[in-house]
Amino acid sequence: MQAYFSEGEPIGDHETLVKLAVSVGLDADEARSVLASDAYANEVNADERQARVFGISGVPFFVLNDKYGISGAQPN
Q: Do 23 and 46 lie in a common domain?
């Protein structure tokens, strides 16, 4: 989020994502491998289905305990 919204990083670029993954301690080669595959496609599709069930149409949106939904930015 910070890389995109604050620093203007192009998060659609795989090498940018690899750099960000490495910055949080992930392995660069593994990150590249995942980005080049559909390894987490089922999980992403499940998240998208859940978002539709909750009626999520924008971000940010927070779901608490699979029960409560809060839309929009919230104060600290």
A: no
